[in-house]
Every structure is written in structure tokens, then in C-alpha cells.
Design a protein that fits this description.
Layout: H1 26-41, H2 48-61, H3 87-90, H4 129-145, E1 147-150, E2 153-156, E3 162-163, E4 167-171, E5 178-183, E6 187-192, E7 203-206, E8 209-210, E9 217-218, E10 221-227, E11 232-236, E12 241-248, E13 256-263, E14 266-273, E15 279-282, E16 287-290
Helix pairs in contact: 1-2, 1-4
Length: 331
């Protein structure tokens, strides 16, 4: 999966298409999340970094939070199979079927060659029922595994807010490199070291006092040791800003280029590079179709430049993970 996608979580819905269209389906992101956390939990902790970048970027960007681009025909009566009224408001919270790195929809393909009955011919698909369920499933997978408390040990696998009965974890990324852990139970605490930094530049404070000596590390985790109920741990680190140029596309066909700006593990700017073409070839439709790899199109993604600022993030109430729902505990 990693070799066919981008570091921010964009994964092609189909590998090796014979055309210019390349898109990311939320179902594929769900599968990536499931495989990644399974490997990370069973001897391959190096995949936690991939999972955090996925969670912070293409996964959350794939959920529809603004549907102003979708125009409804409320004057048209609903039928037993189709509904038309107030579609924009009703699809808030849905998940992208085939996104590009810059838009909720990558291309205006009808896929007449292989998918859908007669009633779906010549219609563009933007969102699918499968992706709605997959979006929630994968998001749960990432949230569930961001931090776990097992056998007296608190493992912070991703620098993402998480509330457990034994601890509340708050992270200020992408605004600041600061992770805070408030313990509600005695625990051995271990925290993953983000891939963009290292243990030598990480500072650890416990109850507003510097941790004596350099923090110990094992693999890609800080092994901080035993702490007690009421202890407050703060871990700070530099949050670098870096830029990389990437290209996505099918071998032998048009490549779509982007300049990606990262702040820590978060993409804060997605710039297109010479992608402002209106049409490209679809092997399913056997013709050129409208595409959205540039600046214009439905549901613009990665509108995040405010995250470049160093500001005081505001806190919100967290839902507590009581452990009542877990994959291997369901019977």
C-alpha cells in the first residue's frame, strides 16, 4: 500500500489503471488503517507513524463537512429509488468515494463500462454507501488504537487526543509540539517518538519539574517508567515545517504533481503544480472526462494554512473510551 500512495494517506482505489484518472476511496483508507494498526500492535511499531499521518490528513479530509458545492433539485419529486431534496445538508458527515488530494471528487467518471444498472448510466458518482460505513469503521480503528492501557501500562501510540479511564491525553499538534498526559491511575508510561524528531531533543516534565536525566528510549518509544495517580506528564519537542514535491498517477499516463507542506505530521498546505487541466482520459468511459486535480472543483480539501500559526489550541470535551467496544472483545 505504502509504495502506491503518498505519505499523507492518499491511496489509489485501483492499482494500475490504464488511464489518467487516479483517486482515493475511503474503503481503501479503512483497509490501510486496519492492516496498519494490526501490524503495529503485533511486533511492527514502525507503522504507528503511517497511521498517525493517515489519521491527521487524508482520512479526516475525506469526510464531508461542507457540501455547499452540491446543488439540490428540491422541485423534483422523490421516487422509491431516488431522492432529490436538500441533498447537500443530508450528506454532511458522509465520506468521499473517489477523492483527489485537493477535492472530494477526483473525476466526473460515469463508469458505464462496468458498474451499475441501467438506472445509473451516465451518472457521476461522488459518494458511496460503502464509504459511509468504512469511514466510521476506519476512524474508530485509528481512535481506538491512538492510546491503550493494558496490564498496568499506558502506551501512547499516536499524538492524538484520547481519554481513557486511566488517563487523559491531549496533544497540541499541529500548533505546537506538546503532549500532555494526566494520570487517573498508577501506570507505566510509554510514548511513541514522532518520526520527525528524536529522543535527544525531547523534553519531559513531570508535575512541572524536569525529568531527571535524559528520557530513555526503546525502539521508537520513550520508556518513561512508573508514575502514580494524579501525576501530570508533559512531553515537548520541535515541530518542523518542511516541504516536499510529490506526484501521483498511473504508470505510463498523466502524473499529477503537488507541493506538500508539513508541520510535524500534519499537512498544512497542498499546492497544485501545473494540474489545472479540465479533462483527462478515463479508460472506463473511453473518453476524456472532467477532472479536479487543480485548484477548482467540488469540496476543496486541505484548507489548513491557519495551522502554520503558533497559537494556543482550544480544548474540547473528549469521549471516554471505556473499553466496552473493541474488535477482539465482541462476541
Amino acid at each position: 500500500m505504502k509504495t502506491t500512495g503518498a505519505a499523507f494517506g492518499f491511496l489509489p482505489e485501483a492499482i494500475g489503471r490504464k488511464g489518467d484518472i487516479i483517486s482515493c476511496e475511503t474503503c481503501a483508507l479503512m483497509d490501510f488503517a486496519g492492516v496498519g494498526v494490526t501490524l503495529a500492535n503485533h511486533g511492527h511499531p514502525e507503522y504507528w507513524g503511517d497511521m498517525e499521518r493517515l489519521a491527521r490528513n487524508q482520512y479526516v479530509e475525506s469526510q464531508v463537512r461542507d457540501a455547499s458545492w452540491l446543488v439540490s433539485d428540491s422541485a423534483r419529486p422523490d421516487t422509491y429509488q431516488f431522492t432529490y431534496h436538500d441533498i447537500g445538508r443530508r450528506i454532511l458527515g458522509a465520506w468521499a468515494g473517489w477523492s483527489s488530494p485537493t477535492h472530494i471528487l477526483a473525476a466526473r467518471e460515469t463508469l458505464n463500462a462496468h458498474w451499475g444498472g441501467p438506472e445509473l448510466k451516465n451518472k457521476v458518482r461522488a459518494l458511496q454507501n460503502c464509504c459511509g460505513g468504512s469511514g466510521l469503521h476506519g476512524l474508530f480503528t485509528l481512535w481506538k488504537n491512538a492510546a491503550r492501557f493494558e496490564d498496568g501500562t499506558l502506551s501512547v501510540n499516536m499524538h492524538i487526543d484520547k481519554k481513557l479511564p486511566q488517563a487523559e491525553i491531549r496533544c497540541d499538534q499541529p500548533y505546537r509540539g506538546l503532549l500532555k498526559v494526566a494520570l487517573n491511575a498508577d501506570a507505566v508510561v510509554r510514548v511513541r517518538i514522532p518520526e520527525f524528531t528524536n529522543s535527544a531533543v525531547i523534553n519531559v516534565r513531570v508535575n512541572d519539574q524536569a525529568l531527571p536525566g535524559a528520557p530513555k528510549s526503546f525502539g521508537n518509544f520513550l520508556e518513561l517508567g512508573q508514575f502514580h495517580t494524579g501525576d501530570r506528564i508533559e512531553i515537548s519537542y520541535p515541530l518542523p515545517i518542511r516541504t516536499e514535491d510529490i506526484a501521483i498517477g498511473n504508470p505510463g499516463f498523466r502524473q499529477w504533481r503537488y507541493r506538500v507542506t508539513w508541520k510535524g505530521d500534519t499537512v498544512v498546505r497542498m499546492e497544485t503544480v501545473d494540474n489545472d487541466v479540465e479533462k483527462a482520459y478515463s479508460e472506463f468511459d473511453k473518453t476524456n472526462v472532467g477532472v479536479y486535480y487543480g485548484q477548482s472543483g467540488p469540496g476543496r480539501l486541505y484548507q489548513r494554512e491557519q495551522m502554520l500559526q503558533d497559537v494556543e489550541p482550544s480544548s474540547t470535551e473528549l469521549y471516554q473510551d471505556t473499553g466496552a467496544l473493541d474488535f477482539w472483545k465482541i462476541t
